Request: fold
Amino acid sequence: MRISVLAVGRLKEAYWADAEAEYRKRLPRYADVDVRELKDEATLLAAVPPRARLILLDERGENLSTEAIAQGILARAQSDGVSLAFAIGGPDGFSDQARKAAARVLAFGKITLPHRLARVILLEQIYRGLSFLRGEPYHRGSR
Reply:
């Protein structure tokens, strides 16, 4: 499975970069994951791989559990044979044009997160979701 994480802005602080590096180190056993830093929404949308299912992260999106992300997004993409492109926009969120181009719009709850933290949480949720799908012990949901 191929997953792209497309983010407006850069991780400048070493602690965010270290957290991202930890998940990028863990993920290759589950999927081919690449992270790209882009300057704005237009370059982000242009960077979405052809035929990839675009998932936007936005505070106004739908709230899903880890299991729902695993089964409804990750497993579905695997079974459909498509790649995924998760997008984290700039501080003003996404335009209506970007929302219309997306297959789904997700939120990590009703709180507002710094974009750098949302990026680390996204990588963790991808990792957790893929380990959940394999039945591995990292994921200990509400069961």
